[in-house]
Amino acid sequence: MTTMTRRTALASMGAALATPALVSNLNAAEVTLRLHHFLPPVAPMQKQFFEVWSAELSEATNGAVEVQIFPAMQLGGKPPQLADQVRQGICDIAWTLPVYTPDRFPIAETMSNPFMVTNAEKSSVAMHTLMDEFGQGEYRGIKPLAFHTHDGGKLHTRNAPVLSKADLQGLKLRAPNQSTGDMLTALGAEVVFFPVTDMVVGLSNGVIDGCCLPYEVVPAFKLQELTSYTAAPAPASRGLYSNTFAFIMNEAKYEGMSDDIRAAVDAASGMQLSQRLGAQFDVFEAGGKAAVEAQGNTIVEIPAEEIASWQEEAAPVHEAWIEKLNGMGHDGAAVMARANELLDAG
């Protein structure tokens, strides 16, 4: 092979090797968004929502947006720090719970009070509306993408079902948040607060008699194996409680994107996303209930009149929340009245 031919061949080989990199660069995402959350990578929320939503956003922007998902707090920190991580730019998007930072996002936390939930889809729409009307100032430096709830909590117990207030007397229960704990205490239960991981240990060794959680949490912690009874309010009643969630984005990151990408993000967020997330959690709820049924556990219904009496017991918890909102510069009574109106509508 002549020197010229060899050079030509090497040049051609070099061009061939360079072509994939060139194509890769041409197709590289214009914007990379880091999504941080606390659930494990095998969680249904990861597989059925985060990955699906991320792929849809990439497709909607013809690949201009790439969402990199970091489950299980892989970017560091603890779940209560997620909102600050978004604000500070440690991550670009996060999924978190307002109750992780009590009283910091009080409007977003309002529907975590007892009996402020119907099903997840309807309650998520109500929460988003409430945030639009009263909570616009809570997330400064952050662009909210969606707000939602899970379905109403149930009472999962080891030794006996709960059908009345009498059944709660002295029962050691793990509560999901402070306001629900206050309500259960008023009903006569002995309430404890600790992480769900400790809850599993507590149920295993008999330190607690049960817990208050939605069905959707059951499979992840194998609660169907640790408890034998589940008590759910009568279908026409409000749920015992629901925690609220915020899906949020760094505002500076959002503002720094091109108009067309911002438009795609807007189309993939807002009220329709809140409703979608709620509907997704209703699906998760059905799956959790199926796990309880497959285990052969006993499911009982707390009568509507009993739930009505429990709601009366919860009234002081609501009054205390109204006063808390008033102290933060809100019209607490108006916020609670509007939340109830939204839940009762339709």
TrEMBL record:
Keywords: Periplasm, Signal. Gene3D superfamilies: Bacterial extracellular solute-binding protein, family 7. This is TRAP-type C4-dicarboxylate transport system substrate-binding protein. The keyword Signal applies. GO terms for cellular component: periplasmic space. GO terms for biological process: transmembrane transport. CDD domains: PBP2_TRAP_Dctp3_4. PANTHER family: BLL6794 PROTEIN (PTHR33376:SF15), PTHR33376. It holds the Pfam family DctP. Residues 1-23 form the signal peptide. It comes from Yoonia maritima. The keyword Iron-sulfur does not apply.
